[in-house]
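User: I'm preparing a small set of examples for a lab meeting where we compare how different chains pack in three dimensions. I only have the primary sequence for this one, and I'd like the structure in token form so I can line it up with the others. Please keep the answer compact; I'll paste it straight into my notes.
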Amino acid sequence: MLIDLSDATLLVVDIQDKLLPAIRGAEALLANAGKLISASADAGLPIVFSEQYPRGLGHTAPSLLARAPRADIVEKNHFSCVAAGCLPDSLMARSQVIVCGMEAHVCVLQTVLELRAQGKQVFLVRDCIGSRADSDVDVALLRCQQAGVILVTREMVLFETLRLAGTDLFRHMSKTYLVEDKPLGVSQRESAVMLGQLRGKTFAEILPLLDAGRGHFAAASRLTLLGFESEVPPVLLEDKPGQSGSLRVYRYLLDHFQARIGPEAAEAGLLLYAEHSADARANPGKHPNIDRLLDIASGKSPSLIAVAG
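Assistant: Understood. Below is the structure token output for the 309-residue chain.
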């Protein structure tokens, strides 16, 4: 049985900020899920994010939401999305559900078992699930298979939604999601470590930590943001009320991502803005400096470079 693009939905279960630090292999899960979500969005696959008790556990990782800004987001208290009755009619109307997320042995397991009980064909993306312990993942996978759930990988989903080589979409997918990632530069590795340590902190707690840099932009009191290989109106950030926090975020991104704010840097910036990123998604136009990162991360806007001073 293959995934049918016209009859499937991607369900991303509870990949939330405050849960991620406890998950084994959280960085790999986040990276793989990000690629899965982006490729699914590019292929035209409908996407739904679920959030377990977001008031206490936080919202879906901003870097994932940025990859599918038009996706449905549903909240629940039940561990199972099915028991919660939160899944949109558009998902329930389709016979196939592709599932990724966490924790594999709790919310993911209960959701997929109940989807199967309702007669859905369920595809569980093996390299895009996680739990606090590997043993819980192993037993969850066994139970899922016993219930008739089909195990797939991120690349299987990509190729089955494509079905055909030689198209413009295939060339785009191949170049974007199938090529091996280039090794990170020193500053990017440092940034990745730091960003992992900042998960769960508020914007106010994060800001003082951004001033420890010694890069080219670290002391800049004024930045002019310019489009990279594209004409966009320049944006000025200054060290003044209402802009100083964003200036510190953008300085950090420029110094740690090779003086360019592309999709990867934009996703890092969304983590740095912490709770304000969720507010920006809920209120477009309220946080223009975060809106800019959301657009870059999702590919709607070009990458940026900057001039200091």
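A couple of notes for your slides: The longest strand covers residues 121-130. Confidence is low (pLDDT under 50) at residues 181-186.

User: Perfect, thanks.
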